[in-house]
Amino acid sequence: MDWVTCAYSAACTGVASRPSGFCLAHLTPEHLGAALGAITPGRLLDLRGTTVSSDLLSRVLRAAGHRPGRTRFDRVTFTGDVRLSGVTFAGDVSLDGARFERLASFFGARFEGNVSLADARFARELSFHGVTVRGHVSLDRAVMARDALFSQAVFGHGLSGERARFDGYAAFDGARFEGARFGGGAFFRGARFGRTLSFRKVTGHAGFDAAHFAADAYLSATGRLSAARARADGLLDVAVTRCGVDLRGVRVTGTATVRLTDSQADLEGAVLRGPATVTGRGASAITSLRQVQAPDLGLRGLDLSACRFAGLADPTGVRVKECTFALTPRGMRVSLRWPMLRWLVRRRTPADDRPTGTLAAPGASGHRGSRAGTTAGPPTVLAYAPDGLRRRAGRGPWLAWRVLGAGRAARRSLPATIADVLSAAPRSPR
């Protein structure tokens, strides 16, 4: 501790007040009245290490005119309910290592600076509902044993909850995380959510890298959303608008649902053990499905023209509907091997299967609305589509060709392919 402690006993860690040398909790009534009279609104308020009851906290806030300045409550133990409605903190507030033995309600409070709750412990409910913080809020390594509510709160420079632990229900619905230019957003790297997490209709960036969702999790954002290497033991529901989604290496045991609106998602290396669906609206796309393990994955309304499929563990479990693939180039190609002259017919193909060294004609990439590049009708099983998967299967390419079913698909489509080639070839005049 970097402060002079109370002289009442060696066990008391409260900051000593002058000239008595005792903390506010151990002052006599006469000395306490004098100490409270010295508190000035808008000035420093220091109660570090002190054990504070509900009555003492109320008297201190009244003495500060419910507008303290720089506030230092590090390692304070609050033995009663903490209610800060109507209090405006004009400076930074430090509650590092504080202990809240009962309800901690910041509802109705306003913070003009930063708020630090690093290593804080909340034995009962925590409410930040509707709170406005102009600065940054830190919940790093904090432990919330009961429900934690942050709905409708406004964070001017974001919130960090690295390795925080939410043992109860956690709600951030309608929260706004501003200050994106300065790294603002909500970031919960390595955090653990023991019960349902509701992160719906949130404005701003959000990061849950390496987080653990022990129950259902509902995530949304209007900025970039990242849940790389996260683990979800229950349901995972992700909904984003006009942003990128990083789900690389995510592991989901229950149902996984991803809804994109004018957004892009990267699922490389994801392990989706339960039913999974990814749907898109507007200009939505998936950039990678490499090394994905998903026995039941549905894709609908997505741009897959740049998506990589190499290493997909179970192509037979992927269903594609109303999605856009890349289009191969068409025209004539000259080769040194027989046949030396080849006519290329435009077809839908995954990005892995594009021919290398060939210049695509204008409009060769698939786009929404192109009949040649968009799947329609019943869902297509991906195992019969990508020849590139066969070429990248590693050892035993012929075995992979047979197992993936591409050979059977080629035999079934051979007459149609011949017809396309003949129709594309120029006819000699009679």
From TrEMBL:
Highest taxon, organism lineage: Bacteria
Record-linked InterPro entries: 5peptide_repeat (IPR001646)
Gene3D superfamilies: E3 ubiquitin-protein ligase SopA
Region of interest (Disordered), ranges: 349-379
Pfam families registered for this protein in UniProt: Pentapeptide_3
Protein name, per record: Pentapeptide repeat-containing protein
Originating organism: Nonomuraea aridisoli
